[in-house]
Target: Protein-L-isoaspartate O-methyltransferase
Amino acid sequence: MRGAWEPVTWGDPGYLDDVYSDAALTTQLDEHGVPTSSSSQPSLMLTMLEALDVRDGQRVYELGAGTGYNAALLSHRLGDSRVTTVDIDSGLVEAAVRHLHSTGYRPTAIVGDGARGYLHNAPYDRIIATAALPMIPPPLLDQATEGAVVVAPLGYGIVRATVTGPGRAAGRFLGTPAYFMLRRAPGNPPQFESAREQQPSDTHVPVGDVLGRLRFPLSIALPGFTSCSWRDDHGRLDAVGLWTPDGSTAVARTTGTVQQTGPRLLWDTVEELADALPGDPDRADFHLEVTPAGQRVTHRPSGLGWELPTLP
Ligand SMILES: C[S@@+](CC[C@H](N)C(=O)[O-])C[C@H]1O[C@@H](n2cnc3c(N)ncnc32)[C@H](O)[C@@H]1O
Model:
């Protein structure tokens, strides 16, 4: 990715057009050129805020302060004292506070792992996450009121769940497609060399399904799943790569062959899902149930279900 990015700042041609476009804007890269923060796509933020359905007097907790923009919207609606926003990156929180103060908002903005919540301002009536999570962090449920609404990206979808009791919540996914950057956690970056050393086998699943109709179900069935694609000189899809944080990798080519390795044979899951979920599965058919014993996503029409992992 290094070299593919160009900074755009105030005064540059097109700056305001970008700022007012309905696009996610990358606001920070790490030393490898990988985005670590962004201002989310405005229409997606609005969809999430609508789903959050805040009411006067409610307290809101946001995981992922980023630029502070969403926190500003929430502060405008509810008042500063009702909003708590957390980011894992101290530089981002400093900048968010500057942005918020310059526009007249003073919510609580703190540095930390947002999965832990912030007891001092709890309990919260509404919880929103703007970084992708592997599951709803249990500490956030402990800091929520009964009936609280949680809106959070899980995999490549956004779940809206209602807290039904201590450590319990239930809900379903919004129909909206969504991609949020992953909640940051230690781990190794994807690498595909070891898969390419394996004996190829045949597959009947079109590899493009991984980037299309199966992308969301795969992100639930294979937590932490990342995919990438390789294209030929004409931009035609050549192969896709799949990776999960346990080091499992698969590379599938449009010629119908697959190579895979690791603790989990990822393409086996692709084939299971491809056979069990015909067509383009509707995200709203996926339901989440949280109990103190664990979290489970079920696809009601097919009866398929997956346990979500505990937070690393
Ligand atoms: C899409 S951006 C947030 C956009 C933001 N809500 C806004 O209005 O600009 C995701 C943010 O989540 C933060 N993040 C990632 N992991 C986190 C964690 N474990 N706890 C808190 N924040 C985290 C990132 O640093 C990044 O700023």
